[in-house]
Structures are given as structure tokens and as C-alpha cells.
Write a structure and sequence with these properties.
disordered N terminus, 228 residues, alpha/beta, Rossmann fold, 9% strand, 11 helices
């Protein structure tokens, strides 16, 4: 059985910083879907050349707060999605895709197994990229055979698997078992409706952890990246 990953502030490779005083302003701009204002706030708050400090003190806390507000019903899912997209765009200007500081993170990928929903995966991908991580999107409707082949070919170290329906969630057990046999060091996070309905299902399929929300998944990835 895989060992679950639990929050451990000291395990990550980045140092936890005091939140920025601009945090509330950025949250308001993101929830208003104001790209221009959000960009100006980040530009004013963050020192050029220090993208990870900006991530830890401003961008990630803002996304985490918005994620928690969605859990309590205070904001809409569309606002979570757009907040992630805006922050992803901002981070792409500060830390472009392919930047060595992104690439040095463990190889990471995400896929929707045997289903074709896209919104949940899109939100998580945006939040992780806004968090400074490179992540390969394997797409939707991927089969177990395809997923195992791609993960082993790419030497993925952190894999996120999303499902919408229970049969696909159950099929993750086979995928995880085969990936573990070929590549035991790969850490696997699962998520989606079936895992939210059954709190113990992620353990049954052999995953390392289950992401309830995008902000929750970001925290899990930060821990795993620090341990990889």
C-alpha cells in the first residue's frame, strides 16, 4: 500500500515566506477577472528576478485562498478557473516555460483516464503552472496502456490522474500497479468525483495521495517535489 502524503511545511524545497501585504488586492483582482490589475499588483509587489519569492508570498497564497473560498461556496468554479489562468499568464512572463528553474523540478504529467472531461484538469494544470512547475498534459480519454507507456517513456516522477466516472477510477488501480512495477519511484496523485465521494478509494487503488482541490493538489506537489 502506498504511503499517503501529509502536509509537512519543512519538506519542500522552497522556504515558506510571510504572505504579501498585496494578497487581498490580488485576490480581488483575480475574482473580478481583471487581468490588467492583477498584473500591475504582482509587478508592484514582486522584486524582479525573484519569481519564487513572489510565488510563495503572493501568487500561491492567493490561489489557495480562492480555492478554500470555493470549498465553502463563496466563489464560483469559473472564478477558480480564471484565477488560475490569469496567474499562469503572469508567471509565464516572470518564469517562462523552459526556464531552467522550472525544468529542474521533477518531471511531472497529468492525464484524464478513460474520460473526456476537461475543466478539472485545466484548473489544476493552470494552478500548478502558476506555481512555477512544468507539467506535461497527456490529454483526455487516455487508456491504461497509453498512460503506462507514456509515463515510463518520459520517466515521469510525479503523475496526476483525474477521473470523472467510477469505472475509470477503478481502472486507475491497474494503471498504478503497472507503473509501480516499471517505475517504483513515481509518485501518483489521483482526483475527481469518485475519489471525493469515497474517501478511502485513493488508498484502494494504490495512489500516494488524493487531491481534493487545485490548491490542495498544489501543496501535495510541493511536498513531493521537495522529496523527489
Amino acid at each position: 500500500m502506498a504511503t499517503p502524503v501529509t502536509p509537512d511545511p519543512g519538506s519542500g524545497s522552497r522556504t515558506t515566506q510571510t504572505p504579501s501585504p498585496f494578497l487581498t488586492d490580488l485576490e480581488h483582482a483575480l475574482l473580478s477577472v481583471d487581468h490588467v490589475k492583477a498584473g500591475k499588483i504582482v509587478g508592484k509587489a514582486c522584486t524582479p528576478g525573484s519569481p519564487f519569492t513572489c510565488l510563495e508570498t503572493l501568487i500561491v497564497p492567493a490561489l489557495e485562498n480562492i480555492g478554500r473560498r470555493w470549498e465553502t461556496g463563496d466563489v464560483a468554479l469559473s472564478q477558480v478557473y480564471m484565477s488560475g489562468r490569469i496567474c499562469e499568464e503572469i508567471m509565464d512572463t516572470m518564469l517562462p516555460p523552459g526556464d531552467p528553474r522550472r525544468v529542474e523540478n521533477p518531471k511531472m504529467a497529468i492525464a484524464v483516464l478513460e474520460d473526456h472531461h476537461t475543466l478539472g484538469k485545466r484548473i489544476i494544470t493552470s494552478v500548478l503552472r502558476a506555481g512555477g512547475y512544468e507539467i506535461t498534459d497527456y490529454g483526455n480519454g487516455i487508456s491504461v496502456d497509453q498512460l503506462v507507456a507514456q509515463v515510463t517513456r518520459d520517466r515521469v516522477r510525479i503523475l496526476l490522474i483525474s477521473t470523472l466516472m467510477l469505472p475509470a477510477a477503478i481502472r486507475t488501480k491497474e494503471a498504478i500497479a503497472r507503473i509501480r512495477a516499471a517505475q517504483p519511484e513515481t509518485k501518483i496523485i489521483v482526483g475527481g468525483a469518485p475519489f471525493n465521494f469515497d474517501a478511502g478509494l485513493w488508498k484502494e487503488v494504490g495512489a500516494d495521495a488524493m487531491g481534493h482541490t487545485a490548491s490542495d493538489t498544489l501543496e501535495l506537489v510541493k511536498q513531493m517535489a521537495g522529496r523527489a
